[in-house]
């Protein structure tokens, strides 16, 4: 059974069809790239999977559960986490709190116990704080735990976003253009890092990128989106020489 | 020499922890309680000064509880006076009409608590529909709520209609105000440093991201709103038994504006700021008393100017270290120590 299965997914924004009869499956432990030119509908697909938008038509199954109609936090609880194309950290909050917030579902105590700092509160807070610090130290962010996240340099903010997503204990990680705004050297490091995360945390990853050559190296399979529909799908080498893809990108990457 | 300096430095570091979290709070509580009892039993403190301190306490409760919604959560509620009214009326009806006169001294805390609970329940009724949808409905809903409470009270003869309620004894004493003020600060501070409190903060920062990180944003908003209303109700009960007279007009939008000013003056999302804002504003009101009705011009103007030039207030988004739990305050430090210890342990093997 595939981990995630998207069937006939369609989403319209007041007439504009951002996702058009999109079909997609991913199995456990795969790393699949979704590429496509600006405005192709890539981010919208992520927003539909994670419940930010409700699909106009179609269905999304994750480990056998229908996701359409569920709220984002319910979907997160099922095991899907994501990062954002434009970094969306909790800017004024500390690096530690950014990660601990993502463990909302893992800390088990009642509002009453929270108000009085009694019962399970202490043990649970210690547990999630230790876990958060552990995660931060894996990302070499533990020294910055008490910093406000807005004060981190850009590259570290991107890393923190991935750490925060991982803090929800996901099975499926959705990365939306994690390399945006980075230089080629940083991008190379990031792609290696993503491969490492996949192994270490045993997560399945869908990676959005609009520059094709960045993901050639690490993705096993690519899906090319244009005007909300899949125009090509396959191994990176096949995609590279696909005529339709060249057309979609004409005047952009391939001309260079 | 350098050893001495190092020792001094450790002492200084440790001292802060000790002073902040081991000794300061118990000592502060005992001294505060003793002082407030002494001041109200023996003639240590001028009655007028006592009254001002009582208002400072009530205003701290109002400010810190509204700060939870407007500061920590970043929503905009203008209905705080409405919840205060509910607490004031419920507590007053209990001490005047229900409880036997002779037992009032002992049942006073129960009356105050009942006022808080009534306000919390109404808070729940307001919160559930208002937080169902995203957007800036809360300001409108709470404004309407404040007006409804006022006109309902004006139209119930059993509670005195527009004339209001009389006959409360002066049960609000300095020790009781001290107790309720400390309780409200402690509870709200506890909430803020819990998963629900962090949920509240993350809603202010980015609600959609918060939801996507697994925070049940609706649940968190409702909890915050209920706790906030509860303490507004507590403050209302204390207020009614200070003034010994209440009427619906006391709890109109102007009262709400006062509380808003204290929040935005002291600083959003800060316990220390709430205390500071309430202190400064209460004293300022006393000093400006000779201005009479001109205060009505001065105060809203002050709110507008504050929101333009100092939107976060004096302590905006900052907290006095005294209020921050050690686990949060020294997270990095504790972690480094822990890593070093486990490193030493494995090196010793
Ligand atoms: N909230 C919205 N309301 C209206 N239209 C939207 C909305 N979000 C996206 N769109 C439109 O839907 C289309 C797909 O947008 P989407 O953000 O999914 O593209 P993308 O593939 O992620 O592009 P990029 O590479 O620039 O990030 C675009 O034409 C965009 O303008
Ligand atoms: Mg996008």
How does this model look, in words?
The complex is a heterodimer of chains A (about 260) and B (about 350). Chain A is of the alpha/beta class and about 260 residues long. Chain A has two domains: about 5-80 and about 170-255, 3-Layer(aba) Sandwich (Rossmann fold), CATH 3.40.50; about 90-155, no CATH class. Chain A is about 35% helix and about 25% strand. Chain A is built from ten helices and ten strands. In chain A, the strands form two sheets. Chain A has a six-stranded mixed beta sheet with strand order 6-7-8-3-9-10, sandwiched between helices. In chain A, strands 2-1-4-5 form a four-stranded antiparallel beta sheet, with helices on one face. In chain A, helix 3 (about 95-100) runs parallel beside helix 6 (about 155-165). Chain A is globular and about 65 Å long. The model of chain A has no long low-confidence stretch (mean pLDDT about 90). In chain B, strands 1-2 form a two-stranded antiparallel ribbon. The model of chain B has no long low-confidence stretch (mean pLDDT about 90). Chain B has a single domain (about 25-335), classed as ABC transporter involved in vitamin B12 uptake, BtuC (Orthogonal Bundle), CATH 1.10.3470. Chain B is mainly α and about 350 residues long. Chain B is built from 14 helices and two strands, in the order αααααβααααβααααα. The structure holds adenosine-5'-triphosphate (ATP) and magnesium ion.
């Amino acid at each position: 059974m595939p981990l995630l299965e998207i069937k006939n997914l369609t989403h319209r924004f007041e007439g504009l069809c951002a996702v058009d009869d999109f079909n997609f499956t991913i199995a456990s432990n795969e790393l699949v790239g979704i590429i496509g030119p600006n405005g192709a509908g890539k981010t919208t697909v992520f927003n539909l999977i994670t419940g930010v938008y409700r699909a106009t038509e179609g269905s999304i199954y994750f480990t056998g559960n229908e996701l359409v109609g569920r709220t984002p936090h319910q979907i997160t609880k099922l095991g899907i986490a994501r990062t954002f194309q434009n970094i969306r950290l909790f800017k004024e909050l500390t690096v530690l709190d950014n990660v601990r917030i993502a463990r909302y579902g893992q800390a088990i105590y009642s509002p009453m116990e929270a108000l009085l700092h009694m019962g399970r509160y202490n043990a649970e807070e210690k547990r999630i704080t230790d876990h958060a610090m552990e995660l931060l130290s894996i990302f070499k962010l533990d020294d910055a735990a008490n910093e406000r996240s807005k004060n981190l340099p850009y590259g570290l903010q991107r890393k923190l976003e991935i750490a925060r997503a991982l803090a929800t204990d996901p099975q499926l990680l959705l990365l939306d253009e994690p390399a945006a705004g980075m230089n080629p050297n940083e991008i190379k490091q990031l792609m290696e890092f993503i491969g490492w995360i996949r192994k270490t945390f045993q997560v399945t990853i869908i990676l959005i990128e609009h520059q094709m050559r960045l993901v050639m190296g690490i993705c096993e399979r690519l899906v090319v989106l244009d005007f909300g529909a899949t125009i090509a799908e396959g191994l990176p080498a096949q995609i590279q020489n696909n005529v339709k893809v060249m057309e979609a990108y004409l005047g952009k990457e391939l001309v260079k | 020499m350098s050893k001495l300096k190092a020792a001094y430095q450790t002492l200084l570091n440790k001292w802060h922890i000790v002073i902040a979290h081991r000794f300061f709070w118990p000592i502060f509580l005992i001294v505060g309680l003793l002082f407030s009892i002494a001041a109200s039993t023996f003639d240590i403190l001028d009655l007028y000064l006592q009254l001002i301190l009582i208002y400072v306490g009530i205003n701290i409760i109002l400010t810190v509880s509204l700060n939870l919604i407007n500061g920590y959560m970043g929503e905009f509620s203008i209905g705080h006076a409405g919840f205060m009214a509910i607490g004031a009326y419920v507590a007053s009806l209990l001490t005047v009409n229900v409880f036997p006169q002779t037992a009032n001294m002992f049942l006073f805390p129960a009356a105050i608590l009942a006022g808080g609970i009534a306000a919390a329940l109404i808070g729940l009724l307001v919160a559930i529909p208002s937080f169902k949808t995203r957007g800036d409905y809360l300001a409108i809903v709470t404004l309407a709520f404040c007006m409804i409470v006022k006109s309902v009270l004006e139209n119930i003869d059993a509670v005195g209609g527009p004339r209001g309620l009389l006959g409360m004894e002066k049960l609000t004493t300095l020790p009781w105000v001290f107790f309720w003020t400390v309780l409200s600060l402690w509870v709200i501070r506890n909430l803020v440093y819990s998963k629900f409190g962090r949920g509240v903060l993350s809603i202010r920062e980015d609600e959609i991201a918060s939801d996507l990180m697994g925070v049940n944003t609706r649940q968190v908003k409702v909890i915050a709103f209920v706790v906030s209303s509860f303490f507004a109700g507590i403050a209302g009960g204390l207020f009614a038994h200070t003034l010994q007279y209440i009427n619906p007009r006391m709890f109109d939008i102007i009262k709400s504006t006062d509380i808003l000013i204290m929040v935005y003056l002291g600083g959003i999302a800060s316990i220390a700021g709430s205390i500071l804002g309430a202190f400064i504003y209460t004293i300022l009101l006393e000093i400006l008393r000779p201005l009479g009705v001109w205060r009505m011009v001065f105060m809203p103007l002050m709110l507008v100017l504050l929101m333009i030039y100092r939107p976060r207030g004096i302590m905006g988004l900052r907290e006095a270290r005294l209020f921050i739990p050690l686990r949060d305050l020294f997270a990095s430090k504790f972690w480094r120590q822990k890593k070093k210890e486990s490193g030493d342990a494995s090196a010793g093997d």
